[in-house]
Automatic annotation (TrEMBL):
Residues 455-497 are annotated as: Disordered. Belongs to the DEAD box helicase family. The lineage of its organism: Eukaryota, Metazoa, Spiralia, Lophotrochozoa, Platyhelminthes. This is ATP-dependent RNA helicase. Its EC number is 3.6.4.13. The Q motif is unique to and characteristic of the DEAD box family of RNA helicases and controls ATP binding and hydrolysis. Residues 487-497 have a biased composition (Basic and acidic residues). Residues 298-450 form the Helicase C-terminal domain. It catalyses: ATP + H2O = ADP + phosphate + H(+). Keywords: ATP-binding, Helicase, Hydrolase, Nucleotide-binding, RNA-binding. InterPro entries: DEAD/DEAH_box_helicase_dom (IPR011545), Helicase_ATP-bd (IPR014001), Helicase_C-like (IPR001650), P-loop_NTPase (IPR027417), RNA-helicase_DEAD-box_CS (IPR000629). It is an enzyme of class 3 (hydrolase). RNA helicase. It comes from Macrostomum lignano.
Amino acid sequence: MRRPVAIDNSLDASVPIDSIDCLSEPIRSALRSTGVETLFPVQATSVPLVLASHRYSWTRPRDFAVCAATGSGKTLAYLLPALQLLAACKTVALRCIIVLPVRDLAMQVHQVCLRLLAALSEGAADSDGCRRQIRCQLLVGERSLEKERHQLVRLMSDGSYRPLADLVICTPGRLADHLLNCPGLSLARLRMLIIDEADRVMAEQKQDWFGLLERLLDKPMPHPSIHSWLHAKPPHLQKLLLSATLTHNPELLQRFRLHNPLLLTATAESDKELEVSAAPGRLSEFFVQLKPSQKPLFVIHLVLGLGRSRVLCFTNSRESAHRLASLITLFADPRVTCEAVSARLPVPKRARILRRFSTGQLSVLVCSDSMARGMDLPSVDAVVCYDRPASLRTYVHRAGRTARAGRAGAAYTLLERREVLHFRRMLSAGGRQVREVRLHGSKTKRYEARYQTALNRLHEEQKAGESASEDQSKDQNKKTSMKKRKTKEDKSKEVDD
Ligand SMILES: Nc1ncnc2c1ncn2[C@@H]1O[C@H](COP(=O)(O)OP(=O)(O)OP(=O)(O)O)[C@@H](O)[C@H]1O
């Protein structure tokens, strides 16, 4: 890869949108009406470069890899050039695909995109009103494959297919489903493939979606229209890869067959295998050494003693998440409200819990690493790595749920003594500064008795639960052996008869 372009890690280097000449006026006014007055450094660096790479339609635009801090605004860094390019196209055709590793993230980016598109079409109504609306579809498996397919293409009476989407936001698995099962889907006009959280998407390679996509790229349109004859030569596809932890390893990146790639980076330290973006400017990072039994007490102390009002806790297992949430609930202090959320919960329930946390009705949300990537929850003022993160990547994404968009935040990692050395080494390899804070007994004394009561109640509830399930399985065993005996008796009766 050529010499990387540096991205300023400080939001003080943000640039007023009016000074970004390459942005069209409709996009600028859409930004203004969604409350964006300046472009963050990652946006001010990448938007002009990406747009410039499309200046001449006869040359193939180069590809980009963007590595910038969590919460630094990478979403707009790719949405803005994509929307500007799409707005200039007169006809509907699938021209841009945005791939995100999980459904929740795709839904979040879809929301950001819809807000911008609504502002764009309002602007069009105010001016000449003749601009075509960009059509964006979300494909994450929320609806049946059939229903999603009807959002992508329409079968016409002459047997041809009419494209219905300019832009698709999807997960890799769902994209593969459509590439395999949607007969009218044509990629002949595809100009941009954007892969957010690219390192994660790359690691999973679900259903070889990228191989499928490449094979379909070369396929001609199923039923050529006059339009497709006029534009017979397929446009060049540009790829944009983004993450806060993006590898610089050319071999790994070449899996996406990048063309003349340019790396835009705000990295902490140069490492060939793993590039970790510099930490967000106003993130303070701490670790606390304590016994496992003290961990819930520390979380309670964060809210009651240190005044953190929105705390996001990451555990390594669902059991650990539910145990912590139950314990905090049994602590029964109205100032510390807590729930656990996991990817297994039905989408509406998960959305309800996230809304309660975002609106301040919950002070502590416990979750697994499925929430660590990309989720943009407003005003999280502290992240707690309740269980030790397995890797630097995991840590960076967990900690990155706070201190977003220039706000202040703190990340606390709770460690047992034997874990401290490994953790400190792991962080210093990523150029991160982490300080130790101590949990003094004098500070937690006032809620210790109540905590002990909650702990005892939790043990009792667990015991009651265990013996109930033991009874249940005994009953079950009894029923099964009775059934077996009966069938045996019936059989021997049949033989006697
Ligand atoms: N130019 C801007 N002006 C004001 N707010 C912005 C701007 N750009 C982004 N934001 C806000 O910053 C927050 C973080 O943005 P975004 O989610 O794009 O970060 P990210 O770099 O993708 O983070 P992650 O690596 O965690 O996915 C969002 O709430 C977004 O609305």
